[in-house]
Design brief:
- By secondary structure, this protein is an alpha+beta fold.
- The protein has helices spanning 48-57, 61-65, 67-82; strands spanning 2-5, 30-33, 40-43.
- The protein has a three-stranded antiparallel β-sheet, with no helix packed on it.
- β2 (30-33) and β3 (40-43) form a beta hairpin.
Protein backbone atom coordinates (compact mmCIF):
# COMPACT_ATOMS: atom_id res chain seq x y z
CA UNK A 1 0.00 0.00 0.00
CA UNK A 2 1.22 3.49 -0.87
CA UNK A 3 0.29 6.69 0.91
CA UNK A 4 -1.92 8.62 -1.50
CA UNK A 5 -3.28 11.39 0.76
CA UNK A 6 -1.73 12.10 4.17
CA UNK A 7 -4.06 12.57 7.13
CA UNK A 8 -5.34 16.09 7.67
CA UNK A 9 -6.34 15.48 11.30
CA UNK A 10 -4.53 14.17 14.36
CA UNK A 11 -5.30 13.35 17.95
CA UNK A 12 -8.52 12.17 19.56
CA UNK A 13 -11.38 11.29 17.21
CA UNK A 14 -14.43 13.31 18.36
CA UNK A 15 -17.87 11.67 18.56
CA UNK A 16 -19.05 14.33 16.07
CA UNK A 17 -17.35 12.40 13.26
CA UNK A 18 -19.76 9.49 13.66
CA UNK A 19 -22.95 11.50 13.05
CA UNK A 20 -24.60 11.40 9.61
CA UNK A 21 -24.85 15.19 9.70
CA UNK A 22 -21.25 15.76 10.79
CA UNK A 23 -19.45 18.93 9.84
CA UNK A 24 -16.22 16.90 9.82
CA UNK A 25 -16.62 15.87 6.16
CA UNK A 26 -13.31 16.12 4.38
CA UNK A 27 -11.32 15.29 7.49
CA UNK A 28 -9.56 11.96 7.18
CA UNK A 29 -6.85 9.61 8.36
CA UNK A 30 -4.11 8.53 5.95
CA UNK A 31 -5.57 7.35 2.63
CA UNK A 32 -3.65 4.45 1.12
CA UNK A 33 -3.75 3.05 -2.42
CA UNK A 34 -3.18 -0.54 -3.50
CA UNK A 35 -0.51 -0.59 -6.21
CA UNK A 36 -2.10 -3.66 -7.83
CA UNK A 37 -5.74 -2.68 -8.18
CA UNK A 38 -5.83 1.02 -7.29
CA UNK A 39 -8.28 0.59 -4.38
CA UNK A 40 -8.19 3.49 -1.93
CA UNK A 41 -8.78 2.91 1.78
CA UNK A 42 -8.20 4.80 4.98
CA UNK A 43 -5.90 3.71 7.75
CA UNK A 44 -8.11 4.29 10.81
CA UNK A 45 -6.59 5.40 14.09
CA UNK A 46 -9.26 3.54 16.09
CA UNK A 47 -9.56 -0.20 16.38
CA UNK A 48 -12.57 -1.77 14.60
CA UNK A 49 -14.50 -2.54 17.81
CA UNK A 50 -14.19 1.05 18.98
CA UNK A 51 -15.44 2.32 15.62
CA UNK A 52 -18.52 0.07 15.87
CA UNK A 53 -19.12 1.16 19.49
CA UNK A 54 -19.01 4.83 18.51
CA UNK A 55 -21.43 4.38 15.61
CA UNK A 56 -23.79 2.50 17.94
CA UNK A 57 -23.52 5.17 20.67
CA UNK A 58 -23.82 8.35 18.65
CA UNK A 59 -27.09 10.27 18.69
CA UNK A 60 -27.65 12.61 15.76
CA UNK A 61 -30.43 14.98 16.81
CA UNK A 62 -30.20 16.99 13.59
CA UNK A 63 -30.74 13.83 11.51
CA UNK A 64 -33.62 12.71 13.75
CA UNK A 65 -35.27 16.15 13.51
CA UNK A 66 -35.40 15.69 9.72
CA UNK A 67 -36.75 12.12 9.84
CA UNK A 68 -40.16 12.94 8.36
CA UNK A 69 -38.71 14.73 5.35
CA UNK A 70 -36.11 12.02 4.82
CA UNK A 71 -38.77 9.29 4.87
CA UNK A 72 -40.85 11.24 2.37
CA UNK A 73 -37.88 11.65 0.03
CA UNK A 74 -36.79 8.00 0.30
CA UNK A 75 -40.36 6.84 -0.32
CA UNK A 76 -40.48 8.98 -3.47
CA UNK A 77 -37.11 7.56 -4.63
CA UNK A 78 -38.05 3.93 -3.99
CA UNK A 79 -41.31 4.35 -5.88
CA UNK A 80 -39.39 5.74 -8.86
CA UNK A 81 -36.89 2.87 -8.68
CA UNK A 82 -39.67 0.29 -8.56
CA UNK A 83 -40.40 1.04 -12.24
CA UNK A 84 -37.00 -0.38 -13.12
Amino acid sequence: MHLRYPANVAGEVPMEEFRCTTSALGQHDDILQCPSCGLLSSLPTLDPDEIVDRYQSVVDEEYLDEEGSRRELFTWITHRLADY
